[in-house]
Amino acid sequence: MWKNYLKTSIRNLLNNKTYTVTNISGLSLGIVTCIMIALFVWDEKQFDTFVPQNEKIFRTYNIVSKESGESKMAIVSPMFKDVLQNNFPEVDTAIRIINYFGKAVFKKDNNIFYEDQGIYVEAQFLNFFGLKLLSGDSNTALSAINTIVLNRKLAEKYFPGIDPVGKILEIEGKQMEVTGVLADFSGNFHLPIGFLISFSTVEALIKPERMQHWNWQQFYTYIKLADGATIDNLQEKFQSYIRKEVHPILKERGFTYLPYFQNLKDIHLHSYDFEWEIANRGNGYYVEALSVVAIFIMLLACINFINLTTAQSVKRAKEVGIRKSAGAHRKQLIFQFLSESFLLVLLSVIIGGFLIEILIPYMNVFTDKQLYFNPFASVGITSSFLSFIITITLLSGFYPAIIISGYAPLTALKEYRGSGPRANQLRKGLVIFQFSISTLMIIGTCIIYKQLNFLQKKDYGFEKNQLVKFNIEGEKMQENLASFKDKMLQQTGVQEITACYGIPGGIVAGDGITISKTGEAMPVNLFTVDHEYIKTLGIQIIAGRDFDRNIITDSTEAFIINETAVKNLGFETPEKALGRGLNWAVWWAEEGTYKRGKIIGVVKDFHYKSLHQDVQTAVLQIFPKAYRSFVVKIDAKSTIPETLKKMKSVWESYEAEKPFDYHFIDASFDKAYRAEQKLGQLFIIFSIVSVLIACFGLFGLIAFSTAEKRKEISIRKVLGARSFHIIFLLLANYSRLILIAACAVLPVGYYLAKNWLNEFAYKITLSTSIFIIPIVLIIVIAWLTIAFHAIKAAFERPVNSLRSE
Q1: 150 contact partners, CB below 8 Å, separation of at least 6
Q2: Is 90 exceeded by the pLDDT of residue 678?
Q3: pTM for this model (two decimals)
C-alpha cells in the first residue's frame, strides 16, 4: 500500500515539474537561512554558560554622569574589590583584573614577537571562572610576582613539544616564569586570553596610595554572590554606599558614578555600548533582530509551501471524483495527499541539509566562528527536525486531504469551478504578508547601508587617511625622540610625524581639569601631544594659535581645547576662551604637583571616538613624559609599501630587536563599525532570500491563477481585448496586493529604523526616498516574476481554451 502511495506521489510531482521545483526551492531556501541564523544565534548565547555557578557571578560597571551626559564604563576603581569583599556579606568572592593594553614584546632565543590579548589577573582568577590548566597548578600558578600562564597556542609557539612550566620567557625586558598552560575552553568565554600575568606583577609598579583612589577607573571587578543573596539587594546597598562615601570625593573632580552589576552571561551580548570594554563583544539587539528575521523567513517559506500546495491540490478535485467513483476510500485519499506533502517536505529538508554543509565554511569565515551542523547531534535536535517535517506535512496536506477528499464524486466531477472566494482571499492575504516582510527587509538594508555610507564620508574633523601609528619602543628611541623624528622626516613619502599619547580611534586618557578662576573641576579627555600633533593630523584651529617651539612656555604653561570644551567649561565663545587659566593635577607621573597654564588656542571638534558617541570635552597639552606613540602622515602621492619600508629602516636603526609593528588609523575607525557592516551584509543576503521566497510563491500562484482564468482571458480576447490589456489586468491585480503590503509595513519600518539610528550620535535623516525606493524595487521584482505567465496567457490562442465549450 505504502509503495503504491509513494509511486503515485512521485508520478504526480514529476507531472507538475514547475510546481515541484518552485515549492522545494522556496522551502529549502527558508530552511537553510533559518538554520544558519539559528546556529549563529545559538553560539552567541552560549558565552560563559560553561562557567560553574555562572548565575551567581556578576561584573561591576559604572554609569558615569558628567555635564555632557552619561556613559557606561566597564572599568571601575581599584577600591571596589576590597570594599565589596570586606563590607558586604552578600559577596562570597571578589576579584580584579586589569588589561594589558596594547601588545607585549615576547623574547626567546633571540626571537622577538608581539603578542596581544594579555591580562593581569589575581591569583583566584582560574578557579573563580573554573578554567582548567593542561599543566601547572591552578591554585598557585598566578600567586607569585613575575609569573605567567600561556594559552595552548602560545605555549606550542614558544616551547614546541615540551612542557613549558618552570621555563623562562622574557617579556618587555622582564624575566617571567611560565607556571601554567591554559586548556582550551569547553565553551565560549567573554575574555579573549592570550596570556595571563599575575596581578602582583603590575601591583608592584603602582604606588600603594594610588590604589586608594576612587576616581581612578582602570580595573574590571567580578563578584560571586554568597548563598541566599540577591543581586538587586546588593546593588541597592552598594549604590547607597557610593552616594554617601564616594560622591563627595568625585564631585571635586567634576563627575559622579553609580555602580551596577551585570550577570556573567550578559556581558558578551549586552556590553556593546560600554566604554573601555575588553570582552568579546556581540550585540544583543542584532542577535534578537536576526532571530526575528529567521522566524519571518521560515514563516514565509512555510506559508509559501502551504499556499502552493493547497492551490495545486484544488485543481485535483476531478481526480478525487474519479478515484472515488472507481471505489477509492476517503482514508486512502487522505494518505495519498499527505504522502505527497511529506515527500516534498522531506526532499526540501535533505536539499537544505546539503546546502548548509556547503555554506557552513563560508559562514565561519564571515562570523569568525567554528559553527557546525549535525541534525543527529542530540535527541532534541533530531526530534525538532522530525517535528518540523510532520508539522509542515500536516499543515500543507490538511486542506486537500480532509476537505477535497470529502467531496461527493458528483460534486467533484461536475460542480467544481475553482478555488472559491474564501480561498482566494486567504491567498491574497498571504501574498500581502509575504511582500510586507520582503519590503521591510529591503527598507532595513537601504537604511543600514545609507548610514554606513554616511559614517564613511563624515568629516571627522581631522585627516584620518594616510596616518600610520606605531609605539615608541626602547630606551634609545625614548631618549632621542627629536633625532628619530628628524630622521623619519628625511624619508621620501613621510610628510609629518608627531609623538603623543591619545590618538583618534585608540586609547584616550580620561582625567580632570580645574578652571583657575572658579576652581570648578571638569572631567576631560586629555591628549598629551608635541608641537606637530595638530599639523600632522590636520586638525583645524578656529581661534588662537598652535603650539610653537619658539615659545618656551608652551611646553609648560599652554593648553589647547576643542569647541565642546569651550561650551562645557562655560567660556561662551572660542575667542573668549583664549587666555583663560586651567590647572591639571600631574598625578600620572608626579603625584601632588600641578601644571598651571592658559588656553592659547581652540580647535574645531574632531572625532576621536566612533560616531556612536558625541564629541566630548578635549584638552591638548605638551607633556613628553606621557608619550607612548608616533603618528606619521604619509604623502598621498607616495607609494605606501615603499614608504613603510623606509620607515621600518629608520625604526631598526633605533630599535633593532623589536619588530616594526604599525597600523593605519582609519582602520581603527572601520573596526568600530564592523558589527554594522556585517549586519548590512547579512541584511542584503536575507533581503534577497525573503524576496526570492516571496517570488517563488508569486510565480506559483500566478501560474495557478492564470490557469483558472484561461477561459475568461480567451473570452475577453474573442470580444476584442488586446494582449496588452490582458497583461495589464494580470499585473494590476497583484500590484495592488504588493502596494498594500508595502504601505502597511511603512510605519513599522520607520519605527525600527528610528530606534536603530538612535544608537548613533551622528546619523542620516529618514527621507521619503529611503522608503519609496524599496517599494518601487519590490513592485518591479514582482512584475518580472508575474511577466512570464502574464505574457504567456495573453498571447495564447483563444481556441485552445474554448474548444471544449
Answers
A1: 158, 164, 178, 180, 181, 182, 194, 195
A2: no
A3: 0.82
